[in-house]
């Protein structure tokens, strides 16, 4: 299995990676610098999977080492998004031994975290693989890691929701309360945004769904609705405007996601693949 996930350009990611390296290296790697002269001793290493899962983040790991020394060779032996088995070699690295040792922790941490997200995401995706509904992620991400965590969900087979508040309009319950109603919120916001932006509205009742339809929301979210009520809302929306996209959200679990998908929604959003994922154990062995 290899899923599509597109990384931002290094122009965007390099400042993040440099910051994380600076956090770890500080004023210098006391251990490595005490043993090795910079860029003198060459070495090789293998990355080995210690648990089964979906691999994600290998290009990012390679970049970590190359920021320390551009001559480091990081050759993957498994495709990004593929399943790995315990004991399987997923990458082979060659270059200055000081760069390999100095970059090991940051590179491994990123790859293990992203692989864990991709692995759990894929578990959710497989639950509804034969249905039209698509799993999407949320903005419940680790500050500073959103771009990479959302990349990992895409590698695992999910579709990205908005990256940030500027991507699209999402009118949530607190916005509705602040505006005095869904219709007022849509009317005021639509008058100010670029025409290319979509407007999504969070609804909890059939009456709110009807109001969102009346004011031409592009996407209607059915939030924390019981499955029977969700099915009723889907039927209403399809009858009145088949062009409106429907998203289900709220306490989606591996046990409930299929029932939600069977209501006929287009998208199911869940923070669980990121917030509940467990790191995939990887190790680096110097040869």
From TrEMBL:
Alphabetically sorted, this entry's keywords are:
Glycosyltransferase, Pyridine nucleotide biosynthesis, Transferase
What this protein catalyses is: nicotinate beta-D-ribonucleotide + CO2 + diphosphate = quinolinate + 5-phospho-alpha-D-ribose 1-diphosphate + 2 H(+)
- List the molecular function annotations (GO) for this entry: nicotinate-nucleotide diphosphorylase (carboxylating) activity
Signal sequence, renumbered to the chain = none
Which residue numbers delimit the Quinolinate phosphoribosyl transferase N-terminal domain?
41-113
- What range(s) does the Quinolinate phosphoribosyl transferase C-terminal domain occupy? 117-285
- The answer to whether the entry has keyword Lipid biosynthesis is no
Instruction: Kindly indicate whether the keyword Transferase belongs to this entry.
Output: yes
EC numbers for this chain: 2.4.2.19
Function, in words: Involved in the catabolism of quinolinic acid (QA).
Q: What is the recorded name of this protein?
A: Probable nicotinate-nucleotide pyrophosphorylase [carboxylating]
**Originating organism:** Trichormus variabilis (strain ATCC 29413 / PCC 7937) (Anabaena variabilis)
């Amino acid at each position: 299995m290899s899923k599509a996930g597109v990384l931002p350009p290094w122009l965007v990611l390099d400042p993040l990676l440099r910051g994380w390296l600076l956090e770890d290296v500080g004023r210098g790697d006391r251990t490595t610098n005490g043993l090795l002269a910079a860029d003198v001793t060459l070495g090789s290493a293998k990355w080995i999977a210690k648990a089964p899962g979906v691999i994600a983040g290998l290009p990012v790991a390679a970049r970590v080492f190359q920021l320390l020394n551009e001559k480091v060779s990081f050759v993957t032996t498994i495709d990004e998004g593929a399943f790995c088995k315990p004991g399987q070699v997923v990458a082979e690295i060659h270059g200055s031994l000081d760069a390999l040792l100095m970059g090991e922790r940051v590179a491994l941490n990123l790859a293990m975290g992203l692989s864990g997200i991709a692995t759990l995401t894929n578990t959710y995706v497989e639950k509804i693989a034969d249905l039209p509904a698509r799993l999407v992620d949320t903005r419940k991400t680790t500050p500073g890691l959103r771009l990479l965590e959302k990349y990992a969900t895409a590698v695992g087979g999910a579709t990205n929701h908005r990256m940030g508040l500027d991507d699209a309009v999402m009118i949530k319950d607190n916005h509705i309360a602040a505006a005095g109603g869904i219709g007022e919120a849509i009317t005021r916001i639509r008058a100010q945004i670029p025409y290319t932006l979509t407007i999504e509205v969070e609804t909890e009742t059939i009456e709110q769904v009807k109001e969102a339809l009346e004011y031409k929301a592009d996407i209607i979210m059915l939030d924390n609705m019981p499955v029977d009520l969700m099915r009723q809302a889907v039927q209403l929306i399809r009858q009145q405007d088949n062009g409106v996209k429907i998203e289900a959200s709220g306490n989606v679990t591996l046990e409930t996601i299929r029932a939600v998908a069977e209501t006929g929604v287009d998208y199911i959003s869940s923070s669980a693949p990121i917030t509940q994922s467990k790191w995939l154990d990887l190790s680096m062995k110097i040869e």
